[in-house]
Amino acid sequence: MSVTPMMAQYLEIKEAHPGALLFYRMGDFYEMFFDDAVAAAEALDIALTKRGKHDGADIPMCGVPVHAAEGYLLTLIRKGFRVAVCEQMESPAEAKKRGSKSVVKRDVVRLVTPGTLTEDTLLEARRHNFLAAFADVRSEGALAWVDISTGAFSVMSLDMPLLGPELARLAPSELIVTDAKEADLRPVVEDFGISISTLGGAAFDSTAGAERLGTLFGVKTLEAFGTFTRAEVGAMGALVEYLEITQKGKLPLLRPPRQEVQARTVQIDAATRRNLELTSALSGGRSGSLLSVIDRTATAAGARLLERRLASPSRVLETISARSDAVEYSVENPDFTSAVRDALKRVPDMDRALSRLSLDRGGPRDLAALRNGLGQAQALFDAQPDTLPDLLARAFRDLSGHGDLIDRLEHDLVAEPPLLARDGGFIAAGCEPELDEARQLRDEGRSVIAKMQQDYATQSGVQSLKIKHNNVLGYFIEVTTTHADKMMSPPLNETFIHRQTTANQIRFTTVDLSDLETKILNAGSRALEIEKRLYEGLRSLVLDNAALISQTANALAEIDLSVGLATLATAQDWCKPHLDTSRSVDITGGRHPVVEHALSQQGGTPFIANDCELNAEGGAAVWLLTGPNMSGKSTFLRQNALIAILAQMGSFVPAQAAHIGLVSQIFSRVGASDDLARGRSTFMVEMVETAAILNQADDRALVILDEIGRGTATYDGLSIAWATLEHLHDVNKSRALFATHYHEMTALAGKLDGVENATVSVKEWDGEVIFLHEVKRGAADRSYGVQVAQLAGLPPAVITRARVVLDALESGEREGGATQKTLIDDLPLFSATPPPAPTKTKASPALEMLETVHPDELTPREALDLIYKLKDAAKS
């Protein structure tokens, strides 16, 4: 069966984009056919229909409305699809000029992938959306990443073994690799939920990459931006190549690439980020993470900067001090902080507005966002204090310099413009006389005609003259036949042109009336054309100032982060940490910010603060922490790691005082679970993570380890934990917090100079354990596991039996000589019969009396009388 011209066009375009769903524009709908339709209908849960036949079979078809396409795009992208958006490049009327059966020209204008989204509705406002590329050139690796929605562009030299930790830090949506590396990298990439895309090896060529980058930034050499390795240039060049492919030549507005160095940031591997829940909770999502608790930023750009800083704490003391001083100034000047935050709340997302305008996906509302944001920036600049710390002073200097642009945007734009330029109505009155005239004719055509009618009646002396309209003649002048001679005689016949005579009326026109008619009929489209022309002028003006606008946007984000952290510190009573180049970690009254926040949300239960002192220079660099489950060991471990991270990102910290010697790496092995996809048991996961720590940690690392060796036999686990602690102390020489249930290990404090015992306090009362959540020096005498099991709700028979077994094992160990097997063989058999119910003892009269007492309602005299009554009751 022959293929229709339209379907032939579809198949040709589809063949050029085999890996993507083709959104084929048909009027007000994007339609999909064949396998694309089947896949899209299932993914979007929309109806699958059919249109025509191909090779004798029905053609499956589904479609989505153009006006609602963004929501459908987001669903498809999240489900792993790529979408080629095919638009009509001409109107049906234009196509008919080539022949009545001509097909409207269509072409793909954009390839939508996870890393190339720009629309606000498709992105999280407070998070970056990175597109990354990894290059391997002559055994040298590099990772480049870009957020096309903001223009941020960075690159880093990176060997392949370190790719995983960096992907965990950046969390890109999409990674580009060569065809040859895909098989090797796919397991690593997909483990982080990142979409992987491939390009040919030529796209990663460093020579071609340098040319692409030079063309993009308008420079002959990249030396102005830094000294890049071949691998770095290859990775950046591949990003630009991919953007040219997906954006169909419309490259986004990218900032010059910023070269990052691993040695300047704290290294945190993927397992540690997951365990510490820095930017996302273990359950998934932002809620419950450290980021969600500390975010007090007022702008989207400030929130994105906060996430970057939290994911990449600095190791440069000068940088950290500058950030911390800015927060301190904001804490000490609450009026300044309050005023700045009020202004920042009115600052739109200028970075993303600028990016959309550069890709020609923006609209008048993006211009208004820049107008409003730059206006607020100028207001902040004008109101800045005389004295500011260096970081804030530099940021405030970058807020001004946009006076002419602000004036132009304020003059030309209405206060609340529409989203799209095609909607019109966004250029202010008085901006363009030609536009004002077109609008007047469009909106006030009748009044203009009425004025012309009055003018012609006066000129002709015929007061009954009327200007009328019909579908045949259009606008015309009508008078009764009694005035025919006058109207058709000089001098009036030079102005009034005869058109038609009826039984009772004569109709005329004039040159001015014909011109006015044309203007009225075309006024709407003419007004829109003028507005679009003015919009393009404003867009070009903005893009000419893009570098300065980006600089101001960055400055606003820096200010927002500083005052946001200050607001957090004031509200939560956080302190400024002292940082230096020593190897000490000395924290007084430290708290876990996420747990403390959760407790406050649950009724205000106070968090028990604890001290931590690791002195790697002449003192104990390792604390060996013992204590029962549920006592707070894991919380204590995590909170000290989080305090170090917060301190090195430049924030105040949740403590009374904190002295942090710069940390180079943070490793956490707290909690574990099976990795069934890789065939790993809980114990294997634990050992893999521990191995990574022992193989990488240096003498400036901070390591927190919890329950090493618990997933195997007792003696195996004890042996592994013992050897691990010795290795950390003797070989890695790291500062460490090491929690364990193996009380035998407390003997290491007497054998290793840098190890000190610490324990979490508990209290026993009537056979039950009370957790005090208080860490103190010393070793725990027992684990209280049976009491914890009782709190968890194990059946009473099981608890009773556990006590019997525990007593037998402990007594056997004290007496010595008996093997574990002998002890177990001597135990009586388990009885499933529930133990007899405990006999109820007579309640104390004093306790019964206390049950009815309400202390808040007692006067001092009544309280004293109560004490005497309780004493008498206790004697009875």
UniProtKB/TrEMBL annotation:
Superkingdom per UniProt: Bacteria
Any single Gene Ontology cellular-component annotation: cytosol
GO molecular function: ATP binding; ATP-dependent DNA damage sensor activity; damaged DNA binding; mismatched DNA binding
Gene3D superfamilies reported for this sequence: 1.10.1420.10, 6.10.140.430, DNA repair protein MutS, domain I, MutS, connector domain, P-loop containing nucleotide triphosphate hydrolases
GO biological process: mismatch repair
PROSITE patterns membership: DNA_MISMATCH_REPAIR_2
Keyword DNA damage appears in the UniProt entry: yes
Record-listed ATP binding positions: 627-634
Keyword Nucleotide-binding among record annotations: yes
Keywords of the record: ATP-binding, DNA damage, DNA repair, DNA-binding, Nucleotide-binding
Function: This protein is involved in the repair of mismatches in DNA. It is possible that it carries out the mismatch recognition step. This protein has a weak ATPase activity.
PANTHER family in the record: DNA MISMATCH REPAIR PROTEIN MSH1, MITOCHONDRIAL (PTHR11361:SF34), DNA MISMATCH REPAIR PROTEIN MUTS FAMILY MEMBER (PTHR11361)
Membership in a protein family: Belongs to the DNA mismatch repair MutS family.
Protein name: DNA mismatch repair protein MutS
UniProt organism field: Tateyamaria omphalii
Lineage per the UniProt record: Bacteria, Pseudomonadati, Pseudomonadota, Alphaproteobacteria, Rhodobacterales
